[in-house]
Amino acid sequence: MVAQGSHASLMSYTNSLTPKNYSIAGEWLNDGQTKICVGVDSEQQLRDIYAEARLAGLPCSLVLDAGHTEFKEPTYTACAIGPADSDEIDKITGALKLL
Q1: Rounded to an integer, what is the distance from CA 39 to the centroid of its chain?
Q2: For 19-49, how does the pLDDT look when each residue is reduced to its tens digit (9 = 90+)?
Q3: CATH architecture assigned to 2-98
Q4: In the chain, fewer beta carbons within 10 Å around the N or the C end?
Q5: How far apart are CA 16 and CA 24, in angstroms?
């Protein structure tokens, strides 16, 4: 779980490095790199959360595990949203349970 979340976090940060998001990404990098980990009930819910973040225009990522170790087939395992304004992220993930 930690490895998949780490993949998602790094991918989302890299995706955030656009002229529109440079200042937010820089602040996040310099201010402790806050991460809030929440859980979903299904792979479909994970994919829905990611789709909602994309639709909102937030930097995000969705990890597709290749299925060579823990899973027997490719499986979506983690999603990250941000760096972005926490209020915008909370609109999407605020109802999810903390891990």
Answers
A1: 11
A2: 988 899 999 999 999 999 999 999 999 999 9
A3: 3-Layer(aba) Sandwich (3.40)
A4: C
A5: 9
